[in-house]
Design brief:
By secondary structure, the protein is mainly alpha-helical. It has helices spanning about 5, 15-25, 40-50, 60-80, 90-95, 110-120, 125-135; strands at about 80-85, 100, 105-110. It has a 3-stranded antiparallel β-sheet with strand order 1-2-3, covered by helices on one side.
Length: about 140
């Protein structure tokens, strides 16, 4: 297990991790982090701001973790997913200890997706596009 794995909460802690990020980020401003699909555009904006501000991955770890938890929580609340702890094979594949399982059984890695957006800055790594292209989602009211 890597140092990063030791600092990442397990599946049952991800909802509170997302809520903590929302409280921290919205305390000073009116950022619309309301767990809607549209709010994923704000996540893209926040990650781009971290990149432009020169944050290194280690210093940005907690914020990226919170953003990944938030993205996963959007999937839970809006697409019918549920948080799952990854087994050893899934950890090796994803580089993360947790992810979400969609109603059709597919497993996705929102924490890794956020990290990819941060590392590459590529528009193809947009979290909003990730949601819109997501397989296995269902429409569901906010929890």
């Amino acid at each position: 297990m890597t140092d990063v794995d030791e600092r990442v909460p397990c599946a049952h802690e991800m909802r509170s991790c997302a809520a903590s990020l929302v409280a921290r980020v919205t305390a000073r401003g009116r950022l619309p982090l309301d767990y809607s699909e549209r709010s994923l555009r704000v996540v893209d904006f926040l990650i781009d701001g971290l990149r432009k501000g020169g944050a290194d991955p280690e210093r940005a770890h907690d914020t990226l973790l919170g953003l990944g938890a938030y993205v996963g929580e959007v999937l839970v609340r809006r697409a019918g997913a549920r948080w799952v702890d990854f087994d050893d094979r899934q950890r090796a594949w994803s580089g993360q200890p947790v992810g979400v399982r969609m109603p059709d059984g597919r497993v996705w890695n929102p924490l890794g997706k956020v990290r990819n957006r941060f590392e590459t800055g590529s528009p193809e790594e947009s979290l909003l596009l990730f949601y819109l292209k997501l397989h296995g989602r269902t429409r569901r009211a906010a929890a």
